[in-house]
Amino acid sequence: MTPDTPGVVGFIGLGQIGGPMAGRLVDWPGGLVVFDIRPEAAAAVVDQGATLAGRVAEMGGVCDVISVMVLNDAQVRSVVDELLTTARPGLVIAVHSTIGPATAEELASTATLVGVDLLDVPVSGGFIGALDGTLAAMVGGEREAYERVKDVFAQWASLVVYMGPAGAGTRTKLARNLAHFIAYTGIGEAQRLAEAAGLDLHKLARVVRHSDSVTGGPGAVMLRASTAPIGPGEDWYDVMAHTRDLGEKDLALALELADTLGADLPLARQAQVDLAAALGVPHPDR
Who contacts 83 (Cβ-Cβ below 8 Å, separation ≥6)? Predict the structure, then answer.
């Protein structure tokens, strides 16, 4: 499926992320069919030019690729089960919800029995990414199916990465979100330290957002192809060792300040222990 040889695209689940994603498909040459259990959510996309389906099942018989962006594993199972009752062989179902890898694998296997390919394609980038068409998409499933429909994904994603067989996209999303929410928890500690020191949290936030936009934030240290330790003379050793030394110095200073102020920073204390190994440059004498 390409804009020059289009099929019919379907989209189920038109919420905060799914709605803007579907909105970027309303001009797809083959047409867009949508469904949401909330009439007002569907109306917002239909008003842009999409066709409204009366129920999920009817989409399986008319669409060539169907995106699913619902809440959880149970809802994904329900939608996929209904689609498979009418699906034509060759249909590709792309699940964008964040679900368990085992669910993705099981549904992909079930879909194969009726000639349907199911891809797990979770996304990262939030509402702004969906609105701007700059989401990142992580794809698991049959590569041939991905190649058939990747031009559809490119309408709402500026980065689409094929990760491997069924479940691989979901595993990638879980690893990505692990970094995300651990970082959020660390930000909470930083705010507690700043607050205990009598600092303006809004001004701290401005500094953090600015410097992360320059350095790339935590993702800037994701340079290695393996988590195995690296030694002197190997690629990235000097960069990582320098980062380790700076980090351990700054962590020590922050913890010293925290002790003075009576602020509890358990993640910072754990980071002081684990930073060197996390960067691949553990201290040989420890």
Answer: 56, 57, 59, 60, 66, 91, 93, 116
Contact by Cβ (8 Å): 141, 165: yes
Average pLDDT in the 60-83 region? 97
DSSP designation for 217: G
For residue 264, the tally of other CB atoms under 10 A from its CB is: 12
The CA-CA-CA angle for residues 136, 38, 174, to 5°, reads 30
Q: Which two tokens stand for residue 254?
A: 């922050």
9-166: what fold?
Answer: Rossmann fold (3.40.50)
Nearest in space to 265 (alpha carbons), one of 208, 177, 185, 175: 185
Q: By percentage, how much of the chain surpasses pLDDT 90? A: 97
In 89-154, where does DSSP find H-type helix?
101-112, 126-132, 143-153
CATH of the structural domain 199-278, one choice from 1.10.1040.10, 3.40.190.10, 3.40.190.150, 1.10.260.40: 1.10.1040.10
Q: Which residue has the tokens 């993702």?
A: 219
Q: What is the CA angle 146-181-266, rounded to 5?
A: 150
Give residue-wise pLDDT tens across range 207-263: 999 999 999 999 999 999 999 999 999 999 999 999 999 999 999 999 999 999 999
The domain locations on the chain are: 9-166, 199-278
End-to-end CA distance of the chain: 56
Give residue 160's identity as a one-letter amino acid code: V
Q: pLDDT band at 141, cuts 50/70/90?
A: very high
| Strand pairing class (65-68; 135-140) | unpaired
User: Residue 29 in contact with residue 93, Cβ under 8 Å?
Assistant: no
150 is catalytic: no
SS3 50: coil
